[in-house]
Amino acid sequence: MHIYPHLWFNGQAEEAMEFYRSVFKTSKVLQRTELPDPELSVVRFELSGLQIAALNANSKVPYNEAFSLLVETGDQEETDYYWNALIADGGKEQPCGWLTDKFGVYWQVTPTILLKMIADPDKVKASRVMQAMYKMKKIVIADLERAYQG
């Protein structure tokens, strides 16, 4: 048995797969399947170890923040890279490290240190970090660290 995300596109599954593969360097195509209906196809690919299936069909249903893909980053350089790459060509910044890419898929670009800080047993420090994060779109680690230190 396997469990993996399945994304539904309006004829852009191949384009989305190639875009994501250009962003995540450790990625690969797993399968391309043409279905009997010429307007339908399925691609399966892997991004940094996560398998994803994508369907080409005539979906008019938009993605929303109830489902997102989280990219956990190690430092500001990596955070900036994924943020900038995923909003390229029409993506949109959202609050608190969230964004939508040019296909409307929701992503969170989250530095590991943010997760550690908001889990700190010192609730005052954790709260200051949360308040700082609420004011951000792209996460800026230096600003989080200042908030954490007080």
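Second entry:
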Amino acid sequence: MTHVNDPEVIERLLRTKGRWAVVGLTTNEWRAAYDTSLYIRDRLGMDIIPVNLPGDTVHGEAGYTKLADIPASKQPLDVVDCFVNSHKVGPVVDQAIAAGAKAVWLQLGVIDEAAAARAKAAGLDVVMNACPAQEAPRLGL
């Protein structure tokens, strides 16, 4: 079955202050994750946690190499925002489920129907092929 984003879920995730783990957020200013994560933190008021292979600090926020490395003091994860290729997002969604995240947000162009179905079956909210920095202005945020 094809995933269809629920506008009420999108609005709730964007309006409810929370902790967003941004997977694929690096110090590369040319990547979409760089500016979008600033928007999520500075405009929407969310806490962000960078997750990238070297575990680099980004925007002054301590980074981690994988979701499982994020300490209990920074839990729970409200949203795992996925800036990874579609063919690599499945394992990230599985990590989000294992970490007890409440939602996964797959960015524009990131599509994995099977991963979305696994997340939904595990009780997570799912947004796919959408960007919070594009959705929020539509909601007046």
